[in-house]
Amino acid sequence: MLAIDVRQLRKQFNVQKNREGLKGAMLDLFKREHTQVTAVKDISFQIPQGEICGYIGENGAGKSTTIKMLTGILVPTSGHIEVNGYVPFRDREKFVQGIGVVFGQRSQLWWDIGVIESFRLLRKVYRVSEDDFKRRLDELVETLTLGELLNRPVRKLSLGQRMRCELAAALLHNPSILFLDEPTIGLDVVVKTEIREFLKRLNREHGTTILLTTHDLQDIEALCSRVIMLDDGRIIYDGGLEELKARWGKGREVQFQFNDPIAIERLAFLTGGLDVRWSKENELTAKVWIPLEINVSDVLSRVVGTTDISDIKIFETSTEEIVREIYRTGSAETAADRIADPVRDEEAPTAQAEAVRS
Amino acid sequence: MRMRYTFELFREYLGNYIKTKLTYRADFWVEVVSDLMFSLMNLIFIFIVFQHTPSLGDWSEAEVVFVYGYFMIAQGVFSCFTNLWNFGDRYIIKGEMDRVLTRPAHSLAQVMLENVDPPSLIGSLVGLGIMGAAWAKLGLTFNWYDPIVLIVMVIGSVLIYTGLYTTLAAISFYSDSPTGIIPLMYNIQSYGRYPIQIYNKGIRFLLTWVLPFAFVGVYPASFFLERHADRTMAWLTPVVGLIVGAIGLIVWNRGVKRYRGAGS
């Protein structure tokens, strides 16, 4: 069964236009001008149960708007949306019973009372039975090491501690889908790692579907089997992280440090027949660029046996570089052109639909 | 089922309120005292007026005080449950509505519960005392059904207030900053606590049929005042309460669909 099914989803906002100057302000008083901004432009994607999916994009790309439509906070302008078998905004109260939401920038907990009091209140709000609540709480306290925090008021917690409590709060009612909007924002490396481990475990042990937005691509690398990339309200990539790297990563670079000076021609001769490119850094250092089709070990084996090497470094294109590259090349169209077919298949009907509408 | 659930939630939120307030005890007493001071000022105002005139448009001092006592009861209950003054700022502009909407209870119930203000109920008790004193002074007869009628009337009046202020708060969903309406409303509201017969026709019409604040004061109170008894208008109180309450709920429910969230 699909956990999330979104087709041709669109969200438009009316934005007030403020005219300039005093005269403009006076005119605004009587007749407001509005401009329509389309934050999400007919996107479609399906997420099966039990998947961890990363939702990435620059600020203002439409990530939060999508999440808010998926969680029933915002009503879409048009399109089909089904989460957990519900249309979120229509059956909101029943629907939210089955989802957990964590907004990194906003607290779910009551500021002045102890964490455990907030949890108790949420138990009532979500109508969790006392037994289930106990079992669930024990488990969460253990996996998130909340023991000491439970009796402290939320306002006295550090950000990392609070975030762990937020996660627990969102999971007390054992939701089958968890939405996370920038869950690791502002956290230190240790806490980030803890949270990632926790999410992985949650997904493994409870089969919880997780959709998270993030700016930290390490989150994505650590967690997600799938990435949806958004730019200007459109999906520009939807697929595996490995494929993303394979398509956009331009190969790897290996740097050799030799003990004796060596001529670049000799290196090129050693790797003859392989489509690699050598460049010389200095007398003792050379770099070779290896496209993805060629195994790094093939190149290494040819070089290592015949030369005296003191050090080898392998550079792989990081996801971060890939993403930066995709954004740098700009608009969705060019990106869609450059990414192979699956995405284009989804883009095509969108374009058609738009043509029909206009 | 749903009522019971909401009622249980109310108990929980109230518990939370008390826990919070125990950490800020001074705050609690400041609030109680300032509430009472405000009511006392209004009462003193009535006494001063009656030092200069024996009656106000056929209403005696004790009768006006009686109406004011009733008004305080309704006002206290209303303020306890409906604190939507800063709704636009807090929930719409700062986006706290996001959190409310991810929880499985009615959004209006949640917003109301998150802002419960039990100290206001002390005002109701004082109002009840004032009403009782005026009752005795006027020598009104006491019927067995009077307390029940009073409860029904107060519920009606509270529904009127709640409906009106819910409607106003829901405007925040449509307009960016509807500041200015609420203080205006608050001013008009204060007319309702005096006998409406002392005003001219226009204001009377306004307070009865447009912004029915007269149903939070003189009309329901007149049920008990033998000399001014107007049973029809009195019994309209719960009816108008249900209508205005329903309008508030409908406007709110439609407004929520237009909620646009804030920031990222």
Your description of this structure?
The complex is a heterodimer of chains A (358) and B (264). Chain A folds into two domains: 49-246, P-loop containing nucleotide triphosphate hydrolases (Rossmann fold, 3-Layer(aba) Sandwich), CATH 3.40.50; 251-316, Alpha-Beta Plaits. Chain A has 14 helices and 13 strands. Chain A has helices at residues 21-30, 63-70, 92-95, 115-125, 130-143, 159-171, 189-206, 217-223, 241-248, 264-270, 296-304, 319-328, 332-338, 341-357, and strands at residues 2-17, 33-48, 52-57, 78-83, 99-103, 177-181, 209-213, 226-231, 234-240, 252-258, 277-280, 285-290, 309-316. The longest helix of chain A has 18 residues, at 189-206. Chain B has one domain (2-256). In chain B, a hairpin with a 2-residue loop joins strand 1 (55-56) and strand 2. Chain B is built from twelve helices and two strands. In chain B, helix 2 runs parallel beside helix 7 and helix 3 (61-81) packs antiparallel against helix 7 (120-138). Chain B is mainly alpha-helical. Chain B starts with a helix and ends in an 8-residue tail after the last helix. At the A-B interface, helix 2, helix 3, strand 5 and helix 4 of A face helix 1 and helix 5 of B. Chain B: The chain crosses the membrane at residues 28-50, 65-87, 121-142, 148-174, 203-221, 233-252.
